[in-house]
Fold:
Amino acid sequence: MRKIVFLIMATFLWAGNMITIAEYNVQNLFDLKTSGNEYKEYIPFSSSNWNYKTYGIKLKHTARVIKDLDADIVALCEIESIDALKDLRKTLQGMGVYYRYFGIANRKKTTVKVAYLSKIRPIYQKEIWVSRSYKYRNILEVKFDDFYLFINHWSSKAHPESDRIKSAKALKHRLNQIGYDKNFIITGDFNSDYEEYKKFKRKRKLNNTHGITGINHILKTLHVKTKAKYTKLKNDELYNLWYDLDKDDRWNYIHRGNKENLDSMIISKPVLERGGFDYVYGSFGVLRKSYLFYKRNRINNWYIKYSKNYARHMAKGYSDHLPIFANFLIK
Structure:
């Protein structure tokens, strides 16, 4: 009997120390206040049909995904404002999902921002300024007891690689200050493949940096390409968790029928190599619920019907990105 009780207690303690961290680009969660920074199709109560009804459906759909992720911390991309974040949190509460702590990078009035929801109390949050230009979004740094979390949303592929390198260098500067002996997780929408340096061979118009990439060269994720449990890092190298999946599964985005990945989760040497806050080998994944897909090879993104003269929200779909997640053990 004692042995059974001990096993139950040990299982409980093990589970209690396991946390899930997820990242989700929600595809433009705008509120219903007019700030002047909205995309045209998100101007509230206009002919685009962005109103109480469509906003409510967008909130419910986004909350459904987050509920299914069942994560302790969710990093978010493309949140317009603190009001939109609070409305999302309230919608989750209506579904029985409670995130006590939340924050957003709102010191710069960019059109969309990065944010987070957390069941774990953070010590602090601060913003890393990439540039004063509104072309670059601030990076959100959130410190917890056992680790740092950095949430990114780098410039899109409409811009050259030099723009993403600017964000990478700002982040790199902060990592150098903290030190590579610390536990940190870097996540977000990098608008970069986990092997972005290879993409330049097919997309030369982006290559204005002589082949140098932000995600691979600046963050030093270039030379590590094995499963996590077989990997050793040099002190300032980082590990992209996409390598812990089989190659055919390394995608969370579909563009013109091609499976790609724009979001990543990247960890430091102590997190990879059992330093006390540990990545659980093999736990990285992509949420691929059936409702997140439309027909066979299309992601069920939030649907806006565009014509020559107007755009109209059809109150259908979720996001053009699939969320990613991983488990970590706090010893």
